Amino acid sequence: MNGEFHIHTVASDGLLTVEEILDYVDGKRDYIAITDHDILDGSIRCYAITHNPNTKYHVKSVIGVEVSTESKDESVHILGYFNNVRNLGPLIEAMDRTRKNRIERLYKMKSLLKEHFDIDLDLTELLKLQTITRGSIGREIIRQGFPYTTEEIFSNIIGHDCPAYVPATKISTELGIKLIHECGGVAVLAHPTLLKKQSAMDIVPYGIDGIEAVYPANKPHEEEMYRAIAKEHNLFITGGTDFHGFNDGKHANLLEYGIEGQDLEILINKINSLEK
């Protein structure tokens, strides 16, 4: 038994549909979770497909989402996993506000791109997206023919502290975790290796239930460290690829990272024990 629990679709800034992802992992993964940024649509669709008695797929899915939060002036992403869709209203409302703030940020970034890099970005396609992330902005810069690579865009143009960077207005990490719990879910610290101003230990007191210990960007020995933190604080661990698109230069491809064995059993039992 194996699974990966951090996957993005076209519902946010991924490149594949739910069905395309299911076609690719079917027969190779036992469990997956779609975790789009601040929107549950893709994950709920995946759950409905895989739990249909007449489904053609052999993989099961759990309902998931990646909630954008902020702590100590730093972006902190929290993965939420759920066992039903009935009680998700408060979280959905908060994420709706976050997505509206992302639209305002887009217009600010457009002005900065023009001012500093003479990139006159056409927003037509971006405004069709339900969630507009810096990842989707970066891909659109390339798609429109501006001569930059993904690495250059994030290192020099729209990455943190770059001229066209604008922070997104997000809910606090403590509130994000609280909302996930109020909606009947479990909260997991996503990719702790990406934190710069704080550490996983700074987030533990906010009430997380798990840590994404298995992650493609981990540095040597970090998985071991996160597992130790999880054990010390009675947390479970998760893992995934953070898949957005094949060979995107920033994340892993489907099937390359995940969890299995006791790690998977603990996670699935935890999710199954949540309110039906």
Care to give the gist of this entry?
37% of the residues lie in helices and 17% in strands.
Question: If you had to describe this structure to a student in words, what would you say it looks like?
Answer:
The chain has helices at residues 18-25, 41-50, 89-117, 134-143, 150-157, 173-182, 200-203, 222-232, 261-272, and strands spanning 2-7, 31-34, 60-71, 74-82, 171-172, 186-189, 210-214, 236-239, 259-260. It has 276 residues and is of the alpha/beta class. Strands 1, 2, 3, 4, 5, 6, 7, 8 and 9 form a 9-stranded mixed sheet that branches. The radius of gyration is 18 Å and the shape is globular.
Based on CA atoms alone, the radius of gyration comes out at 18 Å
Structural class of the secondary elements? Answer: alpha/beta
- Described by the principal axes of the CA atoms, the overall outline is globular
Helix and strand succession? EHEHEEHHHEHEHEHEEH
User: Number of helical runs?
Assistant: 9
Helical coverage, percent range: 25-40%
Q: List the uncertain runs.
A: none
Whole-number average pLDDT?
95
Number of strands: 9
